Amino acid sequence: MLDTTLPSELRALKGVGPKVEQALNRLGLFSLRDLLFHLPARYEDRTTLVNIADSKPGLPQLFQGEITSQTTIPGRRMQAVLTFEDVSGAARIRLFHFSRAYLATLKAASSVRVFGEPRVYQGVTEFIHPEISVFKSEPPPLDDTLTPIYPNTEGLSQPKIRAIVQQALNKGPDFFSLEELLDQDYTKHQPTLWKALTAVHQPSRNLPATAFIERLAFEELLAHRLLLLTRREDYTRLKSPQLKTIKNHNRSMITKALPFDLTNAQSTVIREIDGDLTRGHPMLRLLQGDVGSGKTLVAALSALPVIEAGFQVALMAPTELLSEQHASQFSEWFSPLDISVGWLTGSMKIRPRRAILEHLANGKCQMVIGTHALFQDEIYFHRLGLVIVDEQHRFGVAQRLLLREKGQNLTPHQLIMTATPIPRTLAMTHFADLDISVIDELPPGRTPVDTRILNQSRATEITDRLDTQFDEGGQAYWVCTLIEETEQSVSEAAESRVEKLKQQLPHRRIGLVHGRMKTDEKSEIMTAFASGDLDLLVATTVIEVGVNVPNANIMVIENPERLGLAQLHQLRGRVGRGARVSFCILLAGDSISQQSRERLSLLKNTNDGFELAEADLRLRGPGDVTGTRQTGELSFKVADLSQHAHLLDQIASLSETIRLNHGETRDQLIERWIGHEEHFVNV
Prior knowledge:
By secondary structure, the protein is α/β, with parallel strands linked by helices. The chain has four domains: 10-41 and 150-202, no CATH class; 48-142, CATH 2.40.50.140; 249-439, Rossmann fold; 450-606, P-loop containing nucleotide triphosphate hydrolases (Rossmann fold), CATH 3.40.50. Helices cover 39% and strands 18% of the residues. It is built from 26 helices and 22 strands. The protein is globular, with a radius of gyration of 29 Å.
């Protein structure tokens, strides 16, 4: 708990009492220097007035005029409706949170400024709860800089945090004594750190085109890379299970039973992993490969020598469905080798759960496959030697760390897998602490999936095509992006789609799977589909990392424009795993934007996941591609990989020089840019 009796730098600022200080602390702000590096997330342009007649729907703009009428509308949710007029016309303002005193203030105003996003509703321009500034006399001059919008938290309004940051800036450069930590060869052609920071906090309208952003982005990206390299360096000092030799007898038994040979890429990756396992420090390797490239087989062949050396292996999957599939597949491979494979999930009954926990603790269970349940406190391993994480973007760093600590005296090796190919820029920034292996070829016999884009109105035609495929022995997925109808979307929900399909295909066996169903129910339906007892499976994106059904050869995705390219590619990878010609039908909304149509065309024209990942990065940003928006991992204050990718090679070279020769500079850069957020990347 915060000691409010002690003075602090922040408390000395006007408007900062105990509660505000606590709110600032929640943002990781503990000093004036922290405020200096608390950079805006975005900006609003309040430098120009726009006439109501010239307003652009959906774009935040500033307007000036007067309130000419007020009406309150009673009901379950009372609202105030105001008429707002300027020289060009009138608009409507709707307020849902207001007081009578506030309405009286608006009525008494000689003029107001309204900032918000207009929309056109029933032919009338209107604002929903805009920001309104009231003036009793002549309004003040407009801002001559953009208005910064800062990351904030409950208890801090934007005007409040702007005022607090401004007080810190007013202290001036001499107060902060900001040391230029970068080499003069770089800084002599760049703005000073102070000039760059003040420009970002008080930006001109052309800020994105200036060198100020790049100056800060370079230093921030450098600090993040240095942190990851330092964490990697610390990690390699730990002791891990060291395999003296790699035995291949059991591997040969598995590979000889396969109906295909390993690809060259798979063989190369296995050799890379073997090299890691024979060293005395823990492996930390990211295995990326396109959908269907054979990562699971590589994981199995990598686990074998660890088990043969007397250690245990844990594989963590993001869903119970996927963990169950892995458990079944590994049991099929390992049972003939007399290797015991266990399965552990959160929904498991008490008796079998106790049994598996006992076998993990005494070593009888040599490999365990499960979900997040694997890193619970009550779980003890006899000799954990290798942790395999499937679909790394579904887990945060903290979760992986917990499982790593299960190794007790030795730090287990880590193999982290993803079927979402990672663009080079992301690999250099988010995964600089990892060795990276790539499976860049598909097993022989896999044919590219034929992808088509159709309008939603042609859904009936698709059911006819499905019926023909079912006659020929095929199976199909039908993916919906919503579970229930909502007022905000016209997308077909999975439940209503099932009913329509049952009417259109009454003679076919149709199942439904979505995230709100009980685990047992989902598993039963997925198993039925995998065994061929269902012709058609209607599902939400829960099947993105679902079971492998080689017989399924058609994937229908409704409203694909709602999903990213990487996710669409993963869904498409559910088909095309058998000998049948496979199709992916993108059933797009009838009125999608041109940008959405171009994105879908990219998917239609390429089956290369790495190419699509690069496109996804350009179009959606790094947080969506890596999943860090969901896990809370690495994010940047000012750097933008789509704009600053050209800096990364220089940063990679400089980071090695600093890491090896300038330890103090490294620590200062990390503290300056990451500071209290350091735990997010503590891998």
